[in-house]
Write a structure and sequence with these properties.
The chain contains five helices and no strands. It is mainly α.
């Protein structure tokens, strides 16, 4: 049995978009309109996709909140360390400052090397996050 034919009147802008969409290989005006009508008459299919998207967005929101919490803890710990360091460390006598600066620079370089080694051995963050 052949499919029934119908005549439609569309607004010019909608027709232009429909016509543009049919420029792709395999796309026809009938197929696009049939798919739109299926989705219109069967909202359950559309809501299933929306539910999956919302669940994924909720999981993303939870992960984002955990990251923000961890960054907040890290910044607070760093702030407390700096406050403690500045309030508890006595200033150095003038004659010892150069040696202390050199020692501090060596310690800092070693610290940076350790951070780089640790980050490289664990891989990037995007490789460790499960989506």
């Amino acid at each position: 049995m052949p499919k029934p034919r119908i005549n439609l009147r569309l607004a010019a802008d909608i027709y232009a978009r429909l016509d543009g969409a049919t420029q792709r290989p395999g796309a026809t005006k009938s197929a696009i309109i049939e798919q739109a009508l299926r989705e219109y008459f069967d909202p359950e299919a559309k809501s299933e996709l929306e539910d999956r998207i919302l669940a994924r967005l909720d999981a993303f929101d939870i992960r984002q909140g955990e990251i923000e919490r961890d960054v907040g803890f890290t910044l607070e710990a760093l702030g407390q360390f700096v406050l403690y360091w500045l309030t508890r460390t006595d200033p150095l006598p003038e004659g010892e400052r150069e040696a202390a600066h050199a020692l501090g620079q060596r310690r800092f370089d070693y610290f940076v090397e350790q951070v780089v080694r640790k980050v490289r051995s664990e891989g990037s963050l995007s490789e460790r996050v499960n989506y």
